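ping. complex inputs:
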Amino acid sequence: MLTITDLSVVFPAGNVQALSELSFYVAPGETVGIVGESGSGKSMTALAIAGLLPPAAKAVGEIRFWGRHFVIGVSSNSDWRAIRGSELGILFQDHSTGLNPLLSAGSQVSEVLRFHQQKSKREADNETARLFSLLGLIPAEVRMRQFPHQLSGGMKQRVMLAAAICCRPKLLIADEPTTALDVSIQAQILCLLREQTANAEMSLLLISHDLGVIAQLADRVLVLCAGQLVEEAAVAKLFSNPAHPYTNLLLASVPRLDLPLALNVPVMEDNDEPTNGCGFASRCPERVSKCIYNPPLIRLSDGRKVRCHNRR
Amino acid sequence: MKRQQGAELYLGIALILLLTVLAVFSPLFANYDPHQTDAKRWLQSPGEEHFFGTDRLGRDIYSRVVYGARVSLAVGFLAMLFSITVGTALGALAGYFGGFADQLIMRLTDIVLVYPAMLLALTLAAIFEPAIWLVVLVIGATGWPAVARLVRGEILRLKSLEFAAASRMLGASHWRVLLIHLLPNAFGPILVAATVAVPAAILTEAGLGYFGLGIQPPIPTWGNMLREAQNYIRHAWWYATFPGAAIFITVFAFHLMGEGFRQRLDPDSQPGRGRRAYYH
Amino acid sequence: MEAILALKAIEAVYSSGTHRFVKAVDGVSIAIFAGETFGLVGESGSGKTTLGKIVVGLERPCRGSLYYKGRRVDPAFRREIQMVFQDSAAALNPRLSVADLLEEGLVIQKIGDRAERMQRVAKILADVGLDKKMLKRFPHQLSGGQRQRVALARTLVVLPSVIVLDEPVSALDVTASTRLLLLLARLKEAYGLTYLFISHNLAVVLQICERVAVMYLGKIVETGKVETVFKLPAHPYTRMLLDAHPQPDPMKKMPFYQLAESKILPSTAYGCGFHPRCPKAALRCQSVAPALVQKSEGHFVACHSAVKYSIT
Amino acid sequence: MIRLLLNRLWQTAIVLFGVSVITFIIMHSAPGHPLQANPELRLDPTAVERWLELRELDEPLPAQYIGWLSRMFRGDFGKSLIYNRPVPELALERLPATLLLTVPAFLLALGLAISCGTWAALRQGGFVDRLLGLATLAGLSLPSFWLGIILMMLFSYGYPWLPASGMRTAENSSVSDILAHLVLPVTMLVAGSFSYYVRYVRYTVLAVLSQDFIRIARARGFTELYIVFRHVLPNASLPIVTVAALSLPQLFTGALVAEYVFSWPGIGRWIVTSTLARDYPVIMAVNLSAAALVAFSNFLADLLFLLIDPRLRFKA
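pong. complex structure:
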């Protein structure tokens, strides 16, 4: 349904390779998680798919989305606009500043419906009210009339979710959708996402640094490190038996409620000098001499993909 | 097309240096005594002898423009020093200590800011005997509230960052926090305010001179030259053109420099750089 | 055992636009023993950060008293009690180098001459695991983890006995966070420190703390040993927080979450602050605020249903 | 909201009080006998006597201040020393001419600035943006009176297309004649304030554009035009309203200069000539009312702000 081929993003000004040759797909109805630390290129992936990369970024790559074909750097803004908001919904992290402070919550959802589906004001308002009730923004009529500053963080994020899915998109990209929220609100939003993707047969591309969030929702997980895909596997396999040492480190580092902290986490100093080799080599406990060369992404016998010299 | 970064800053600084040299060493650049009248040579158009022509009393306009730079730059710098010093001190006190001091200082700025500055300057200049210190005082007195508000805002913003609190916890006094942690971080905006204050003062001084309330003849200032010129504009285009152009170039140089500083401080608001404000 | 730090019936009020007076902290009493790590958990608005600021003297309580080593003290800054903030970028003066930042505490306290001070700075820098070459750098040239370590070192130079850690790892990547937690544990031994660890992340608190207090709307609703509170939560709010924590394990999916977000009442209302969201709320929960009573050895809870359970 | 409003009203009252005190102090700090300082002035002796009487020099200062203030409240602003007529009467006669000059200039400058500034911000770094950046820097650097003189030299004397001064050629001149007289002074006024506004508009629009909700609006597939008119401009209008209100003193100053340069028969020229002639009652009344007018219009801008911004409207 969504296929990304050889997506690379470079910031020439800072000489930063944000993403290099990332290829993956999202099947209909599937939830794909992208996990990685800050600076790993997670968010750039989301922006690239929506054609919203900052102009300072130089990017190449191809995107196929439901039979449409986009070439990054060639396709124009109006090409993207045909899918944004209608077939492709996007949910960002910034719930606190993501809504226009001068417009009521309801009008910010109904304007999407009116813009993309040419609905009358009444039709759009009815649809918005239905969606508000569905997402627990009740009483819907009251919530629709309220302004962003009158809503709590969780409610604002639900309004944003309503605006992102009101046109029944085929794919929803959620970039750190719960990062700034309290855990109880986070749980609500995650449950809503789980429910909406299941009921509406919507694919979800979930981007998060939180392995907990990824584990709860994703069917398949991509692990990014320094702009490269280092591991791709079904969620159960990835968490039970990580193939890449980076994935291993992430999993060992995450604090858990059921296990004590792994005190043997390999603590290596960051190395801020850029390398041509494996992006994880400077911190890798299994480093060997050939890690100064970038390993290829290989497919293991159980179907997962991994980028490491030590996994052959 | 790639823009030369900081071109404004360097051009501005170069022009200002040039003008300063001109003002300090006026006698070296002026080829005539600016006060020397010559009844036979009045209102001569620009030529080889008189680059910018002569005025109604036959004085050399070029030499008078060169000497005029002294007054303009002196008033500009002194008034800027006055408003920056007073404004920074009061703004920092208001922002850091808040409470009653803040209320008092902010209402004071409100009061000064509602006066149209030029009107206030005109009034004061009309009541008191015009002299250079008075002109400086009058311009400085109308200029400090804007600086005070700016500094207060900066201090408030910086105070809310935790490094001030962290330093207090280590035992630092209020003065240490204010002088070592807060004010140095507000240096950029104050610098920009200073570079804006100079041209504003120069314009006001010239305006007062034009209305006849600035520094009085026979001391040549660009403002009082324009005042003399205005009755001759029909016949002597050079009379008003050159002193005005001198004001324009001086003020423009300071604005260029200010713009340059602003670009360094806040690259986001500048063309084609920084955080992407707008993208597709 | 005598508490190194004790809070007795602390109340703090702040006025806001919507509610005229909200009790940010409402009658909190805590005793922290020398050498332990005491966790304070709760969601945003629970008053945990305000409590931390009261401890270091950044905010003044309107009622209640503070005891340090058994002596009643005025709430004010003192060298022995320091704080590390969540946002390390804002907590370090951007115009000072790491060397200047670390030296400042010594200069203020008038300790040693320049050479002695630099010697001490160098030792502490090594203790927090930073290289000497960092001394010349400015905060913006450091990574988030490095900055947080500088902030920690900055408090250590004045040899405090208690450090309040306000969400010290929540802005960090998971690997950097783990490294900082391990470092904190090591420094506690080396410097004989006591920590008040404020966090919204229960898993982190479980890893590092010995005792914990759960706050809700300015009140402590449950407190006790970490293992007891997290394994056998007695308060429905603690239960809810634990359920909402997304576990990094695809086999442990979180339960479905109740959607309706009731209006959270300010704590000035009668009754238990949690009752609008409580699944076990009874009639008296609306009118009578439950007191914090002992449920088992060292385990206190403020809930009518939990107490009833313990009495019968 | 009511509390906010009352607070602003209270602040405005304090400001007005301060303005009256400062005006009074300025008036009283004039050295010596102000009329003797100007022997060139030929004055009506009765007016001189009345002026001295008005100053009530034998009373203590606070009493003088209260007396002066109460006369102001009663609408007694004194009589002009030159015309020997009440100040308000003289001001009202000249008001229409001033409004005819300043209102179109204000609207033109603001309208042009909003459109150009928005355009420049949307095409940030483009040719228009850079050109405008440099042009407005130059515009800010032009001494307005010199610009007026240059305009006059070029378009009235160099090429005699437009009248150089005054408001009309003859007593009963046509509308087109007045319009022709308006062109140069309005151009002069617009040149200065446009540069000031346009930089602010550009800055504000850029600030709004960098906000998350704009990025998100784009992610929802809206067209640029839709985003600009529905999301950007309404949000940018708030600070622009404020700065337009705060720029009223500059507008006032602009009118002073423009009317003086072009001999426009309005309040501004009258103020300048009165000031030069040290016509004290006029100077004081004008200072007081100009400051009061500005304070009041700032208050109105706050009111407008309350109406536009729901964040303030719904505050308790």
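Chain B has a mean pLDDT of 83.
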